[in-house]
Amino acid sequence: MILSLSGNNFVGLISNQICNLRNIHILDLSCNNLSGNIPSCLQNMSHDSDWQYDSLYAEWSSFVSEDMFDMHRGFLPMEGFIPMKYNDMTFELFRFKGTIDFANKREVYDYKGNIMNQFFGLDLSSNQLVGEIPWEIGNIIKLHVLNLSNNLLVGSIPGTLSRLTEIESLDLSHNMLTGNIPTELKELHFLEVFSVAYNNLSGPTLGRISQFSTFDESSYEGNPYLCGPPLVKNCFAITKLLPSPPSPQSEVGDEEAMEHLIFFASFALAYIISFWGWMALLYFNKRWQNSFFLATDIYIKEAIGKVGKLLTKG
Q1: Is the pTM of this model over 0.85?
Q2: Contact 210/187 with Cβ under 8 angstroms?
Q3: Do residues 152 and 175 make contact, with C-beta atoms less than 8 angstroms apart?
Q4: Is pLDDT above 70 for 81?
Q5: Bridge partners for 145 per DSSP
Q6: Range with the poorest average pLDDT among 49-63, 210-224, 281-295
Q7: Which UniProt keywords are given for this protein, alphabetically ordered (predicted)?
Q8: Residue 29 near residue 123, CB atoms below 8 Å
Q9: Phi, psi angle pair for 204, to nearest 5°
Q10: Of 107, 153, 94, 117, which is closest to residue 26 (Cα–Cα)?
Q11: Residues 168, 105: contact at Cβ < 8 Å?
Q12: Cα–Cα distance for residue pair 168/148, rounded to 1 Å
């Protein structure tokens, strides 16, 4: 049910084999030096938790009576668990007897007793995790706490997190997330703690709707291009700071300018090729060379004569 390894010096990747813990309720790997991507298979978390305790008790009750449970606690499959009658049902569920410390809503709480059968938390904060937040995390629909803060996560916030309808604390702060905050997150009606602070998010916040009306500026701070309440920046001012996409008219103008440039360049190239081609022909053909220069002399003499006549008449 519980795996808490926080506050150590573990390094390396989070092994996919951890996803075999299909009955896990609390997985806390925070405050280590873990790297790599978040395994998408963590969606299997708590997958079998609904039936595991019933089937486990059924195996034991086949040969151990209720009196033996009361007299010999050591017969139980795991120390720290005791049988508990559940209303008028004829079977019993196992109840965690010890306590576990786990951070929730920015505080560390001691969890014990029956609540451990209903509480689910995932804390991977304060590591060196990279890559995007797997969209499959949204399939852990029983989660009450999700903390991925203080890592190196990139990409956008997956809209599938809106499936975590029972979540009370969602902390994605101090990463390198980009894009808009998905509007689907407004469906998380039980949120008491929410933070996307100190990322590279842009666009409007989730405003003052429903439970988001209880969150102040600290939930969004550190994102230069976020706007809207509870932030002081309005979205109109932010829009002017962002580079605007080129308009269709400017794109058409650029295309016409490029066509003109290509036309003149091709014309100049053709002129140069023709001129030097003609010069080469005259250089290698003496007969044409003599004819060309003779015609040029005649043309120049006629031109000078005509100019002289015009000047004399003037």
Answers
A1: no
A2: no
A3: yes
A4: no
A5: 121, 169
A6: 49-63
A7: Kinase, Serine/threonine-protein kinase, Transferase
A8: yes
A9: -75, 155
A10: 117
A11: yes
A12: 14
